[in-house]
Write a structure and sequence with these properties.
By secondary structure, the chain is of the alpha/beta class. The chain contains 16 helices and nine strands.
């Protein structure tokens, strides 16, 4: 039996002072030549955010926020994996594994733990397990290739076994959606259902005939992302090591690399502080910085999108689009990049029990809109408990 080792989050004083010194010694580029974000994160915004990170952000309070829930590490398939495990006070709670993506972390789910584990109606209760992906946060960084979504899914199933769960549900967004779907594909006898917030649409749209206005909007959104929003993906999927030197050495580089997605992928009215607070954004960026996982987290893209035996993101997402036959639920948040219609997804999810378009929120659904996210998760799993 794998040994569960309790884990405590601390930001060491020396590491904090080193970060502050690096921020203060930044050699800044000149200002962008436009008055918007079309060339990337504006100089004035990033300078202001990094000043706050150095002199206003409370690192002790941040460590307390991130470490408020029980956390552990365990070795799975030879790799140390960090995870949160919060049991419900209610009997017969459904075990639920929540998986984040990039550039997120377990931080995305902190505000949904309490309502999921301790709801007003005990029939909606979950035991919540939130692992950190390999190479992310406090999980170990793989030292050899091979840690793609299938291997991660196998490790997650083993984690649930170690915790004593024979049947469980799975939920995720971004890469977490792909891991979640893969759990349903590999372990249909153990996974009661999968719920995702990032459902990749098929590459071939011709099979659907005339597209509705809603579907045309979804296609336009992903085409716009392909034209102007996937530079990060190309770099991470082809040269993550080259990119990683800057992300590991410069906190400003790591901050800019992530905060740009807080602007483009959230439902914040075109401003990164519109959907998430500065402290929330910096909690996540600090996690990447102190664990030095800018490089290792990027390698998940290389595993799936950058190798010659993989298809491209534009055509199919570089992922397995085989059918998922366990009961499935899909929630589409309005600022999610992938907003496939129900009929576009029914060929992939053969038992699509629940499909809903949510009123607000973006790519980081649980982080941006905790109450709406919890409602979506509860609604689906009521159908499969």
């Amino acid at each position: 039996m794998a040994e569960l080792v309790p884990f405590r989050i601390e930001f060491e004083e020396g590491a904090v002072e080193d970060l502050r010194e690096r921020l203060r010694r930044t050699r800044w580029p000149e200002r962008q030549t436009v008055d918007d974000w079309s060339q990337g994160v504006p100089l004035e915004y990033l300078q202001d955010l990094c000043r706050y990170w150095a002199d206003g952000y409370d690192f002790e309070a941040a460590a307390a926020r991130l470490g408020a829930r029980p956390q552990f590490r365990v070795v799975l398939d030879g790799l140390g994996i960090h995870f949160l495990h919060v049991r419900s006070p209610h009997d017969d709670a459904l075990p639920l594994v929540l998986t984040h993506g990039w550039p997120g972390s377990f931080v995305e789910f902190l505000d949904v733990v309490e309502p999921l584990t301790n709801p007003a109606d005990p029939a909606d209760a979950f035991d919540v397990v939130i692992p950190s992906l390999p190479g992310y946060g406090f999980s170990d960084r793989p030292s050899s290739p091979g840690w793609g979504v299938q291997r991660i899914a196998v490790a997650w199933d083993e984690l649930m076994r170690v915790l004593g769960y024979e049947r469980y549900g799975a939920q995720g967004g971004d890469w977490g959606s792909i891991v979640t779907d893969t759990l349903g594909q590999l372990f249909p006898q153990r996974v009661v259902g999968v719920h995702v917030t990032t459902a990749v649409m098929p590459a071939d749209k011709s099979a659907f005939g005339e597209l509705t206005a809603e579907e045309l909007d979804a296609v336009a959104a992903i085409e716009e992302h392909a034209r102007h929003g996937r530079g990060y993906s190309v770099e991470q999927s082809t040269r993550p090591q080259t990119l990683g030197y800057g992300l590991t050495d410069s906190p400003v580089a790591q901050c800019a690399w992530i905060v740009e997605k807080m602007w483009g992928w959230t439902d914040g009215g075109g401003h990164p502080d519109g959907a998430l607070t500065r402290d929330q954004v910096l909690d996540n960026i600090s996690l990447y910085w102190f664990t030095a996982t800018g490089t290792s987290s990027a390698r998940l893209y290389w595993e799936h999108l950058g190798r010659e035996d993989r298809v491209s993101w534009v055509t199919a997402g570089g992922i397995d689009l085989d059918r998922v036959d366990v009961p499935a639920g899909v929630s589409i948040f309005p600022r999610e990049m992938f907003r496939a219609s129900r009929r576009m997804l029914e060929g992939r999810y053969s038992d699509l029990r629940c499909y809903n378009r949510v009123a607000a929120g973006g790519h980081f659904a649980a982080w941006e809109q905790p109450p709406l996210f919890v409602d979506e998760v509860r609604s689906f799993f009521r159908l499969v408990r």
